[in-house]
Specification:
The protein is mostly beta strands and 218 residues long. The protein contains 2 helices and 15 strands. It has one domain: Immunoglobulin-like. Strands 1, 6, 7, 8, 9, 13, 14 and 15 form an 8-stranded mixed β-sheet that branches. A 5-stranded antiparallel β-sheet has the order 2-3-4-12-10, covered by helices on one side.
Amino acid sequence: MTKELKISRIENSNVDSSEVHELLDKNRIPWNGIDCNNWADGYPYRPAVAFRVAHNGKALLVEYEVREETVRAMADRNNDRPWEDSCCEFFIAPVDDGLYYNIECNCHGALLVACGKGREGRVQAPMILVDSIDRLSSLGEGKMDERPAPKVWTLSLILPKRLFFKHPSLSFEGLHAKGNFYKCGDMLSKPHFLSWNPIDTPSPDFHVPASFGLLTFE
């Protein structure tokens, strides 16, 4: 079953990452579970993960809330390998042209953004764009070996329209897109691969546009 997510518009154009949580609360933006453990036979561990998202016409406001046993952040620079760490991900195909973006962020805010039509041949976003993304992790910044996690950690991202560098004329208003949200930790002692919308592949793979859910923007 394909899930559908309504992405509400909120009337606040000058928000920064430290205000995302309060603003989404104020606008009663609901939480959604990243709880599909599509490969439970090989990877039975399932942390408790939720996300919520809204837009203000200029940017997407994304917040993750994670409860897991351990955390890791060995990628300490942008466009590195955050998926090996405690990592939250958002893939979006904004229009029906075959292109989709992967936006991956580890628990210390190290981001990877790229665009393409499949796993191979992806084009990374210009570093100046990735570096400019406003983000805030409750765990701070820097490199961190795997260690016991706090009861909960959170991550807030503000993703401006200019980040979608292959679609310079993109408008969020009334947009009908497709996408998926993920939580992974490839190199953790308990690796896991969770998704918001189900994925039907024999082994973990997030680069499956056919398994994207529907994203309807207000």
